[in-house]
Amino acid sequence: MARIRNAFFALLCLTLQMINVKCVRYQPTWASLDARPIPSWYDEAKLGIFIHWGVFSVPSFSSEWFWWNWKGQATPAVIDFMTKNYKPDFTYADFAKEFNAEFFNPAQWTEAFEDSGAKYIVFVSKHHEGYTNWPSKYSFSWNSVDVGPNRDIVGELMNATRAKKSLRFGLYHSMYEWFHPLYLADKKTGFKTQDFVNKKTLPELYEIVNKYKPEVVWSDGDWEANDTYWRSKEYLAWLYNDSPVKDTVVVNDRWGKGISCNHGGVFTCGDRYNPGVLQKHKWVNAMTIDKYSWGFRRNAKLEDYLSIEELLQTFVITVSCGGNMLMNVGPPSHGHIAPIYAERLHQMGAWLKVNGEGIYSSKPWTFQNDTLTPGVWYTMKKNSSGAGVTVYAFTFDWPGSGTLSLAVPQASPSTVVTLLGFSGNLNYTTHKPKGIDIRVPVIPINKMPWVYAGSKQRTVGKKW
Ligand SMILES: *[C@@H]1O[C@H](CO)[C@@H](O)[C@H](O)[C@H]1NC(C)=O
Ligand SMILES: *[C@@H]1O[C@H](CO)[C@@H](O)[C@H](O)[C@H]1NC(C)=O
Ligand SMILES: *[C@@H]1O[C@H](CO)[C@@H](O)[C@H](O)[C@H]1NC(C)=O
Ligand SMILES: *[C@@H]1O[C@H](CO)[C@@H](O)[C@H](O)[C@H]1NC(C)=O
Ligand SMILES: *[C@@H]1O[C@H](CO)[C@@H](O)[C@H](O)[C@H]1NC(C)=O
């Protein structure tokens, strides 16, 4: 029977290939799964928005690791906070009753995300605390419909995201849960038993994909047990072969101890990974606007938030080296995005409106940064005609001398240098054998555009 089925399948495959339909069955092995090309939309998108929201947003102190910092590896600041402000019998679960989401308006969120120039979002469906932001069949009474907002947060956000043509919807999901009894029992056996995976992790992973069809499945919380324990390879084979998002889904690399940075889809390696050199494999810099936390912190100081200049520099270096940036927003438990986050989102979008040409769908160039002028980073695009390339140079400092000297671009008589957001060409002189001096426009300091850049066929960029 199996043989007949296989033969039939092979025949079907052949027929499909003749009419140019891709026909690959991925096997539950890393060799097979790693061979799947990452869907092209992802590399073109460059910027995504990460959103951390859950019961941890209620205490909104310390970080999204609040529960662990209280009851796991206890930290004095959190113990102190609980002793001073809560009755002794108060439990972490009690916080969920105060997760009201009273100002949560998903359309306002997606408006702000679209305005940032991001092309996709990755929303935390469940963090290590185990609370699901959707009415999961596998998280009885510890989900956003049974306690807290009484709303299907994931479903509402999915609808609002799909209403925006420019945004794709993705979900983060934590494999482990710090204090889940089944997880702790499996851990006790040295992960010889798999009750937690079979009854919780996997059913949830299938549920969110079948129900909400996320085009990013971002796994996390994998590091204590190996991929055999988590049954990750079997899940990924299903995701790539038979799931409703098989053709467009992008996954990360957190699928078991030792897997990150080695197998899976896009490599995340560590949090805030930004190697500053070209990477062989598609990667992502998952980072936060609040330097110290993914979840909202009520006691964050102004200087804890990255400035727009810092965000843009991180972004440009990331894209030059072949990465995407996944920039995190932590909304307060009431659900209205705080103005400091809203401002950063808007600033990213304002910059991208002028400079997005050198970012979206760009590729890393031969050189990532200039060898002469520090703080100059490059991207490139092949002209659609196939004739020539456009090199984009982004500079972090507006040259006070009025001349931007670049060592690596090689200008030819047909080279045209322009500045994004500035009409007309820029004058330049060339060096032998390589290099170019570009006269940048004299702009009064109070009229400085935020952005600029440089090139072989063209030169672009903008001051910030
Ligand atoms: C999402 O939209 C669909 C279609 O309009 C609707 O049936 C569904 O109830 C919405 N989901 C949520 C959680 O609002
Ligand atoms: C993975 O962990 C299991 C225990 O859950 C163990 O039996 C197995 O040998 C491990 N596999 C690898 C490849 O390390
Ligand atoms: C930029 O390029 C030079 C090589 O010219 C290299 O030495 C340097 O480390 C690179 N990175 C940064 C962050 O400047
Ligand atoms: C390359 O593309 C740019 C931008 O689209 C265009 O201005 C330029 O003329 C093109 N150059 C060539 C050689 O096709
Ligand atoms: C380029 O040089 C010409 C001749 O000196 C000058 O008129 C023009 O303003 C310059 N253009 C720019 C953009 O600086």
UniProtKB/TrEMBL annotation:
Limits of the Glycoside hydrolase family 29 N-terminal domain = 23-357
- What Gene Ontology terms describe where this protein resides (cellular component)? lysosome
One biological process term from GO is:
fucose metabolic process
Q: Which InterPro entries match?
A: FUC_metazoa-typ, Fucosidase_C, GH, Glyco_hydro_29, Glyco_hydro_29_N
Q: Which UniProt keywords apply?
A: Glycoprotein, Glycosidase, Hydrolase, Signal
Q: What is its EC number?
A: 3.2.1.51
Question: According to the UniProt entry, where is the signal peptide?
Answer: 1-23
In what residue span(s) does the Alpha-L-fucosidase C-terminal domain sit?
368-451
Q: Which domain of life is it from?
A: Eukaryota
- Name the Pfam families for this protein: Alpha_L_fucos, Fucosidase_C
The GO terms describing molecular function are: alpha-L-fucosidase activity
Tell me if Signal is a UniProt keyword of this record.
Answer: yes
Question: Which PANTHER family does this entry report, sorted A to Z?
Answer: ALPHA-L-FUCOSIDASE, ALPHA-L-FUCOSIDASE-RELATED
The entry assigns this protein to a family as follows: Belongs to the glycosyl hydrolase 29 family.
Q: What does this protein do?
A: Alpha-L-fucosidase is responsible for hydrolyzing the alpha-1,6-linked fucose joined to the reducing-end N-acetylglucosamine of the carbohydrate moieties of glycoproteins.
Q: What is this protein called?
A: alpha-L-fucosidase
Identify the species of origin: Elysia crispata (lettuce slug)
